[in-house]
Amino acid sequence: MAKKKIARYEIQSEIGRGGMAAVYLAHDPNFRRNVAVKLVAGNLEHNTDFRERFEREARLIARIEHPAIVPVYDFGEHNGQLYLVMRYMQGGTLADKIKKEIFTLRDSIQLISQIAPALDAVHSQGIVHRDLKPGNILFDNFGNPAISDFGIAHFSTATSDLTGSAIIGTPSYMSPEQVRADAELDGRSDIYALGVILFEMLTGHGPFRANTPMSVALKHLTDALPSIRTFRPDLPTELESILSKALAKNRDERFASASELARELQTIPESLQGASKPILVKKSSGNDIATEVDAGDASAVGETGSASRVESDRAAESPKSNLGNPPSQSPTSKISSRGKFQIASAAGLIIFLFIACGAIILYGAWAGFFRGQNATPTNTTTVSQPTVLFADDFSDPNSGWPTIENAQAKYSYQPDGYHILVYVVNSAPWAKTGRQDNNASIYVDAAPISNSNGFYGLLCRIQDNQNFYYFIVQNNGVFAIGKSNDGALQPLAEWTASSAIHQGNQTNRLRADCFGSTLRFYANDILLGTVSDADFATGYSGIIANALDTQGFEVVFNNFQITEPNQ
Q1: Structural domain of residue 172, as residue ranges?
Q2: Which residues are catalytic?
Q3: Are residues 501 and 448 in the same domain?
Q4: What is the C-alpha to C-alpha distance for residues 6 and 403, in angstroms, rounded to an integer?
Q5: What count of Cα atoms within 13 Å lies in the side-chain half-sphere of residue 201?
Q6: Residue 160 has pLDDT above 80, yes or no
């Protein structure tokens, strides 16, 4: 069977898709190399103005030779659709990297310094990118960044855009003049977007957050820039003035060039740039849309478009879950069983896809955890605390966990913590964070607040809604460790009684260690069990509850935290 082709390019797979185009990994038989082919949306090739601009910009970008610009190899038309052929960047996008970890200031300065001259080179040719964002900053297999996706770039002298309005770009990165749809734009709009990207690399989210894309755009127009040190107290004060200038509402007050921004960043003393893992303080904004890293966007070459999401059982299709039939006996019993287990069906609720994905990703711990102590120590013994990777005490009702109700369960913030109320027997709704970890210790305080029977606990290394490890206790004092493997229960430590587990409606401090192939489960700082399994090496973390009788079951969670593992 013949391979699908765009012109001479043999399509291998789709690697990205956005509102303007789809991007494919393809093979060029003439040069025997892989390339990225961007196929522009079908209705645009009939727009004469767009076609002319597309061809002019393709030729211009192809002529600009800079190591931090993704090279354009070819362009043309195939079956009535315009296409652009570019270098295939194997290292993924900056958006991918921000989803995985927060940058140090040193690494952020280095990246800005690499791409700033490329932006200046483009601006010198009268081209404004207009959609600069982490998904359009790609990496080669050596880790070198380059700017891509000038497909909707706009000549500074142009008076109209592709759709007849002057608004082009992604709301989270739009300069105020873009939001206002000013007719004349210049490179300072891209410098504004570069400032947003810098803020995002250092915190995991953009400076402005709201419930809709338009609301985010309006915040860029009207709201004062928040202090980045409220999120990263370890950052130097010198950074505040640099960001204020890059993100000035009035473009005349911004840096005149991207390289000027980079040079100003380089004046920050090396000793203040930091080499260790950043410290984050939780200042979240709930189920808001913030940036493409929070919300997901597949509009760039190589971008995955994945997003943080919270999942729960779907009323009509939720599978029943009995987790090996936990016993109803007292803690003196030891029960073994082999029930079948599925949690959160593949068709389960995906909360708000674009809107609700935002604020769960990569927020730090309670402020007191990070504040230095004022008292002088009375001895030289130091008890080291594990590095906190993520924490939420659920005191902020906008910290990003779902607040929904369906036929299966209700999720809600209340004054005493975060509640999961399970309505349906043997359904097991759960929620997860948006960060993935290889090795981690996960903590939560949890207590049933009903007199009915059920279990609750922690999940780690969630691959999807069919594959993860679970660590659960029942309110009669028994526990289990196991995994869901393609939806089937595989107990690793079967239901066992422990006097360490507080019974009834008492609070239990639960901890799950996932370190290499070792899985450990604690209740109230007492080790319940240790097992070994190597199926899942990394994944998300979460919380779970399950009702075992018709009265339903409600659990309140507090002080959720992820730290580097206690080995």
Answers
A1: 94-158+167-295
A2: 131
A3: yes
A4: 46
A5: 24
A6: no
